Amino acid sequence: MRYLVALFSFILFATHANALSVSDLSNAEASGGLKEALIQAAGKAVGQLSATDGFFGNKEVKIPLPETLQKAEKAMRMFGMGKQADELVLKMNRAAEAAVPEAKALLVDSVKKMSVADAKAILAGGDDAATQYFKKTTSAPMAEKFLPIVKKATENVQLAQQYNKFAEMGSKYGVVKKEQSNLEQYVTQKTLDGVYLMMAKEEAAIRKDPVGQASNLLKKVFGTLVQ
Asked: What pTM does this model have?
């Protein structure tokens, strides 16, 4: 965490200081501390989401029933299907919690492959520049890793199977949104959304309140900025 705090301390001061700009940094300074910071951030986000109730107990990322089932939920409960609806919500969120650990290796690999140009763009970018970098570089491989785990976690849920049969047909006639026409794909996308939301929150919070110790690398840069 100290590396992540230090990184965004540097970014805030860099915005207002004339002594040094991002373009003045050496390649090593621009990428070394940043990579350490992003690896720390990725580990924290994945750790929070992969814990029991990391999704199910967090209102910001909890995966709800697909919109079509939400509309039918009241009727389902009237006809004694409330337990099935609750089971499906729980299974979807447990599937997300089980899938998320796969994200860490992909996020770390993305950081390691980051170019100097990427690092400088993140340092000079907006509040969620790092999160947008991760979205661009990890969305597709992460979804590929998540999907089979989600399928395994929901394959024995009767309501999930029933929903897929209905939703596939409904999508053809425009009754069901395309992104919700398959439950496993829906949960996979919601899991991705949760990962990037937590990354963005971490990034924004540190930018807003930059306190703590700097790494040796960023201490050097920070010292130059405030002189």
From this structure: 0.77
